[in-house]
Amino acid sequence: MRTHLPLLTSLFGDRGTKIFFGFLLVVVFVAPLLHLAVAEGSALHLSTYTMTLLGKYMTYALLAIAVDLVWGYCGILSLGHAAFFALGGYAMGMYLMRQIGPRGVYGHPILPDFMVFLNWTELPWFWHGFDMFWFAALMVVLVPGALAFVFGWLAFRSRVTGVYLSIITQALTYALMLAFFRNNMGFGGNNGLTDFKEILGFDIHAPGTRVALFVASAIALALGYLACKYIAQSRAGRVVQAVRDAESRARFIGYRVESYKLWIFTFSAILAGIAGALYVPQVGIINPSEFQPINSIEVVIWVAVGGRGTLYGAVAGAVLVNYAKTYFTAALPEFWLYALGALFVLVTLFLPRGVVGLGERFARVRSRTVAEAVTA
Amino acid sequence: MIAAFSGKLRSFLLVLLACCGICGVAQGSDISGFAELVGKLATNNFKTKEQVVNELAQTRHPNTRAVLSALLEGALYYRKRDKRIFIGERNEDDLALVDPLTMEAAGREPAGDFTKITTNNQLRKQLKGTLAGFALSDPDAKVRLAAVHEMLRSLDDDGAALLRNNLENESDRAVREAMRTGLALADLGSGDAETRLAAVRVLEGNLSPEAFNRLSALLERGPDGAFLEPDPKVRAAAQAAVNNIKSWRNFYALVETLFFGLSLGSVLVLAAIGLAITFGVMGVINMAHGELIMLGAYTTYVMQLLMPSYIGASVLVAIPVAFIVAGGVGVLIERGIVRFLYGRPLETLLATFGVSLVLQQIVRDVFTANNRPVETPAWMAGSLQINEALSITYNRLYVILFMLIVFAILLVVLKRTTLGLKVRAVAQNRNMAKAMGVRTEWVDALTFGLGAGIAGVAGVALSQLTNVGPNLGQQYIIDSFMVVVFGGVGNLWGTLIGGMSLGVVNQVLEPYAGAVLAKIFVLIALILFIQRRPRGLFPQKGRAAEG
């Protein structure tokens, strides 16, 4: 018992983490209540749309944490993390497609609609097993993890760093996007996977299922956050930060830099995959546009806006930017790209530590003035 | 038969029309003899007519052809009252008359006053041969070639004999070649095995699809399993010929693929070279590079709007204008954003990405999100036909030339000017250059502007090849990065070789794998290539290399 206490206090030690968990707890308990218990039409009722939106933000926040772990702590600017997110999403989407069974438009007992449409007669080999949830869940972790492992092993071993690495991660997601757009890849081509019916036997559109997915996302977010926090504070996490600050020096001291990088990159990809798997049943569709290079870059800007290397900053950034996006794309569609572009420029120029850094500076100034007031 | 006849006739008449200009001037002195002969046509005796036609052909009078074609078409009449001959065009109950002696219009008269000069099968055959002979002895090689092609469309024995006679006198290589091919094709159907064999030999190196099809047909088996070609010697020769043609075709297909690859590579080099310069000198990745290319393409469009009646020139004018527009925007980006972020390349990448979003949206707001039509000037349209299996489109050819010119200019600027010297000094060792008195800030701004300006110029070239829309830049930016990563940073030759090889590899893979898969293969190959040469084909050497 005693050995666990320091861990808990160190995990929840900083103010940002406390605030984050406070918010998360409130949202997880209040939002479903307002959605299910408060009658529709009441001013306090949360619509299905809002619930879905909140759930979506949580998966985005998890993705942002994953990017923050590699960028903020390890200095690897990955412009391809949306690829891992989408791969996790596709793994889940394949399970959901298989769950449709004979209820598709064409009523084929096994083949999803798009395969019937392409005149395929049997299931491609890589679709086998996805009728079982445990298998799909395993793939959600394994596929992005394996890809990140192979890619990272190749890249880090030959010391591809900096902008070079950023560009080839971007090439990776670009190549995947092109591949998934092809019909004969067997992932539904342009249209992707959609028209899901149920998950684990529950109707995917039922309010109860939506709340369950929402809560699952929150739990995943909380666990992912704690895991990243734990890693960041562990010995390995310290080495990783050393690599970020002075890679050559860390190598000369005797650490195997590429192993640390590979390990953290793979873990981050798995987190992104899980985020994608939770995202797909909530939005109800996954298609190749999720692989677009701009998606990955947007994730990076969430982290930059929030403040990298803090985890809670990434969460804050993901929620803030996405809320702004939801608002602007509805209210002023043509303004959104200007706003996003300006955000990129302004944050990198004036807010290198993000909103969180701004908040901290503000807090420091205030505490100093308070202290001055006391001494005076 | 009749249909084939009239088809041929029409083309002869066309040829005729082309000669009309000459006809009017070259009125011969033997006009009386001609008139007399023509007058003799007003008879019902076919034997007489045949004789007259023969004699007419020998007069070489410029109007002979018009008269004979009219006779063949059934458009030659004589007036009942004075037996005068006219070429007439039936128009309801009237005839629009042309005097065959002067080829001038002679008014309209009721058709009832005239009798049509009739022809029979034999006479028609004679006429046809005579007329073909006229076209084949025309002084203009183009007319002769057209006549040969027309005759080959449905060649009978007489036509073949005519061609054979003319073959010896023919002076133009192309016409002779066409005649020989046509005769050989006709001979393939001959009953004599030796003739067929000789024909196959002639067709051996012929690249036209017809020769290939006819030769392959010789090798096929009929429904009863027997070969369509009974003679084994002819079959063997045909097999050899088909193989020969196939290998030549493959060769030309390869040449064409290489050419496509080189032109695609040129586009990539144009798009990437500016990126390579800024990256090489400043270690900065400009994510807005693609949008600068887009600005160049839109500049071309605007120039066309400004000078709508000089489309051909507007493209040339657009080149310097695009350089200035894109270069100006580049300098603005450098002064406004990039210079605050030196030493932080990842942040620069993000900030310039933001710029790219803004530029895209500006273009969308100004020009709408739809693709803009950029016209191709006449001097860039069309293609250069090298032979039957290979033709090269001019716009691709010009892109290669244009790239080489831009490349040469850049090379000269970087190697032979003071600015180039300073740029290279800063790229090699910034601090040392600064210590030697180089104003690095100024060099940075100019380098960035130069890279951006080249992007604008690339946009002008791209506007001639693809759609000009707000997403133009995005399509090329990743490929440009690949070229830079592959070729190595800060080395123009690396960019040239990198871009060209990526272009060629892409095009070579495309027929086997499809466009998308080819691209994916290239990307994967590149990721693997980076394993062996993490800093590209031509890595930067020296202290600055290890960042």
Question: Can you give a write-up of this model?
Answer:
The complex is a heterodimer of chains A (376) and B (547). In chain A, the strands form 2 sheets. Chain A has a two-stranded antiparallel sheet. Chain A has helices at residues 4-11, 15-36, 48-73, 81-100, 113-117, 133-157, 162-181, 207-233, 235-245, 247-253, 257-283, 293-306, 312-331, 333-350, 354-375; strands at residues 193-194, 198-199, 202-203, 285-286. Helices cover 72% and strands 2% of the residues of chain A. The model of chain A has no long low-confidence stretch (mean pLDDT 88). Chain A has 376 residues and is mostly helical. Chain A has one domain (63-205, 220-375). Chain B has 547 residues and is α+β, with helices and mostly antiparallel strands. Chain B has 21 helices and 7 strands. Chain B has helices spanning 2-25, 31-39, 46-59, 64-73, 121-136, 141-153, 157-169, 173-187, 193-203, 209-218, 232-282, 289-306, 311-336, 345-367, 394-416, 418-428, 430-435, 440-463, 472-487, 492-513, 515-532; strands at residues 76-79, 85-91, 94-99, 104-110, 114-116, 383-387, 390-393. In chain B, helix 11 (232-282) crosses helix 19 (472-487). The longest helix of chain B has 51 residues, at 232-282. At the A-B interface, helix 6, helix 7, helix 12 and helix 14 of A face helix 14, helix 19 and helix 21 of B.
